[in-house]
Amino acid sequence: MNLRPGHKEETVDVNLTPLIDIVFLLLIFFMVTTTFDRHAKLKVSLPESSAELSQQQSNPLVLSIDARGNYFLNDRQIVNQQLDTLKQALRKTIEQNSSLNKLDYNDIALVLRADANTPHQAVVRAMDAASQLGLSKLSIATIEAK
User: CATH number of the domain at 61-140, please?
Assistant: First the structure.
């Protein structure tokens, strides 16, 4: 009987460092190559608050929205709140107004006056209608905070 151990079984150690390195490299690769696209149709340049008045068109279109979401174009109420009706009213007012009788809608200024309690959807609908007509000079009327 042999009481001396002859061979010890060798244990195999798996080195996980290269595996972890590969996983981190893949993570970094996917983070860098992923793109996040924002598809916005309406590009609005928000006005900065300043004491100086900016140059404005002499006779801009004024689209007012009351607290219930009713639209008023140059102080005339638009019958319903649908997007198509709003677009037709804007187009008709632009075509009828002799001082705004231009083929290029990019030169027409639209001032959006919304009540502080106006539903957000009403403001978005007005901005969407302006965008679909090609009105790019959009400003939002505010009052100076005291």
Answer: 3.30.420.270
